[in-house]
Amino acid sequence: MRLWFLFGLVVVGAGAAIDVDLRIAPDHPAIEYFKAAADDPVARLARRVGSGEVKLDYVPGRLGYLPSLLKNLGINVDSQMLVFSKTSFQAPLISPRAPRAIFFNDSVSVGSVKGGEVLELAALDPKQGVVFYTLNVEKAAKPQFVRRDVCLQCHQGPATLGVPGLEVGSSYPGPDGTPTFHSGFTAVDHRIPLEQRWGGWYVIGKTGAQKHLGNAVARDAMNPKELDTSASLNLVSLAGKFDPSGYAAQTSDIVALMVLEHQTRMTNLIVRVGWETRVAERDGKMAEARDRLEAGIEELVAYMVFAEEAPLTEPVEGVSTFTRSFAQRGPRDSQGRSLRDFDLKTRMFRYPLSYMIYSEAFDGMPDWARERVYRRLYEVLTGAETGSRYARISAGDRRAVLAIVRATKNGLPGYWGTR
Question: Per residue in 69-82, pLDDT tens?
């Protein structure tokens, strides 16, 4: 089974410091992706279901196991996003009239297709990277999560930085949702301007005069890049777009999409740095690999601090509760500040450092790599780093982020100062 899993087919943008064509072997003795027992949120839930500790409730009809699955994985329904481009292995069932629903939190994503045979899951293992699963939608005495390593056929390549990872992209879909392949795809993360984002996605939210590619299709096959955007911007609902019955929510929130885009590349960078370091250590080639490892770490640090984020020219406003519920997850310092606080006026977050610093995957990087990341972050946040790549980060923002991290992050090196 070829699985174009959750986020669609993409190509990688140019200019990355990481050698994205260097595919790290999953079966390398330092990795053992196929042999090592997974310790991701889905694997943990599967063990609890198997032991009888947890029972997945089944709702008759289209939703089935989905509500119980989301609850047990700690995923909020307001994270729902809807994609109508045909980029899943269940593509024949997907269209603008029947979009695929995607839900996510920091470490796991769930995809649901109307009339599909399975739910699609991707979970972040602290060391192994992203692991893929399916869950049959039919009611069973004991639901089974099936690991799908075959997904690496598409989910380990340049788009995922050479490791098992996630993909999110923007396409030019035709009226039935089929992407026009010769018109190309754009790899999407927080560095990409809004005007190039969300082709093939439904997007609810306000962007002012800022344009994007969401909610639109190409009517003329001879001109696939000429999307019908006559009524596609600043939508506050999707009424009339498709039949909403059977969906867990009625939204495809713009802020959730922005967070997902940031998180996708952030995840792949953390996994890539971890894998490459483990391989070099196992092979006794740290000295030879040092320059390459340092380049990857620099790419990770620059992305973490949003050094090259595409600026917003007008405020962005979501319509679901996602903006509020995401920020409520904290943690917060004594002044009530959190890395999850949004700005959404000129940039995505109020304090420019990724909340993924709190993730198990970040802490699961090899000691050498994690220490190098901490060192470079400290140099950036204290102002010791004065290079042009980080010039956009103000002194005030650096001080605020440094204080927040000191107050909220466990396991910091001693030179960061006490909490």
Answer: 999 999 999 999 99
